[in-house]
Design goal:
It contains eleven helices and nine strands. With 293 residues, the protein is an alpha/beta fold. It folds into two domains: 153 residues, P-loop containing nucleotide triphosphate hydrolases (Rossmann fold, 3-Layer(aba) Sandwich); 126 residues, no CATH class. The strands form two sheets. A five-stranded parallel sheet has the order 2-3-1-4-5. The chain has a four-stranded parallel sheet with strand order 7-8-6-9, covered by helices on one side. α1 crosses α7 and α9 crosses α10.
Length: 293
């Protein structure tokens, strides 16, 4: 039997995760009171129970009873009941944005500030994040990308090191991404902007990629970034407990060179045991297409 406890920050994607597990044939229960978890474990462990894949959603909606969860999980371990914890996280900025868009109230501050609810929730469920088998940072993930992550872990049994690397292309003229951990400057590479036929295209097009990589420096640039990631990420995971890294690749407008390098870097990094996501922040900016530099 595989028993997965799905938990994490409110607004980080737990509903999407449980729906995904349901699609994978899991028997899913959401927001079961903490006081009933032990009884539920006994029921699903009984041979007469028809399902061998269970996903249980636990979150801040349990209120003060959440404080009892640590003892409940400890008892399950003592009784040799095996479970896994998948923790969904997101940075405060992403959570605030999601609450603003949905106009939902935070379960821990229904009449107060969402920021206060987020801060309190982080403290109350810190122990779950620290003991989780899998931590998925959804700050920059679309719903389909989160589904892909869950599929990789629970359907394809791929090695998952709890590290999500987000590769973001951007244009310096629009500002350096505040969330970036590493910022790489691709403005030294051949610029397709000055070719009027290539200008309307993007770094997603083969012609642009060939142009940007034409002098051989782009390949050396990529190799150096890969070496940096290969060297530093294991250290970040082990010593800093990091689960998310944002690599920002910049060029003037964020349409040609940075997009090319981000795409090709993503292909190379997928050979490493990390979850890779690519995001082009400024690729669709109309002013750049019209030639305003």
């Amino acid at each position: 039997m595989r028993f997965v406890i799905v938990t994490g920050m409110s607004g980080a994607g737990k509903t999407t995760a449980l729906r995904t597990f349901e699609d994978f044939g899991y028997f899913c229960v959401d927001n079961l009171p903490v006081q009933l978890i032990e009884n539920f474990a006994e029921i699903v462990a009984d041979k007469s129970f028809d399902h061998d894949k269970i996903a249980l959603g636990i979150d801040a909606r349990n209120g003060v009873a959440l404080d009892e969860l640590s003892d409940v999980l400890r008892k399950l371990k003592m009784n040799k009941f095996n479970y896994e914890i998948m923790f969904l996280d997101a940075n405060d900025q992403a959570l605030l944005k999601r609450y603003k868009e949905t106009r939902r109230e935070h379960p821990l501050s229904p009449k107060g500030m969402v920021e206060d609810g987020i801060s309190l929730e982080r403290k109350k469920i810190k122990f779950l994040r620290e003991t989780a088998d899998y931590v998925i940072d959804t700050s920059m993930l679309l719903s389909r990308e989160l589904k892909h992550e869950i599929e990789s872990i629970y359907q394809k049994d791929k090695i998952y090191n709890n590290m999500v690397i987000n590769i973001m292309s951007f244009g310096y003229k629009f500002g350096i991404p505040q969330e970036a951990d590493y910022v790489m400057d691709a403005r030294f590479l051949p610029n397709p902007y000055y070719d009027t036929e290539l200008r309307p295209k993007t770094g997603n097009d083969k012609e642009i990629q060939e142009y940007v990589m034409s002098d051989g420096k782009g390949e050396k640039f990529l190799d150096m970034i890969v070496q940096l990631v290969d060297f530093t990420v294991p250290e970040l995971i082990e010593k800093d407990g990091r689960h998310r890294l944002v690599i920002a690749i910049g060029c003037t407008g964020g349409r040609h060179r940075s997009v090319t390098i981000a795409n090709l870097l993503g292909e190379k990094l997928r050979e490493l045991p990390y979850s890779i996501h690519i995001y082009h922040r400024d690729i669709a900016n109309d002013k750049y297409v019209k030639g305003e530099v």
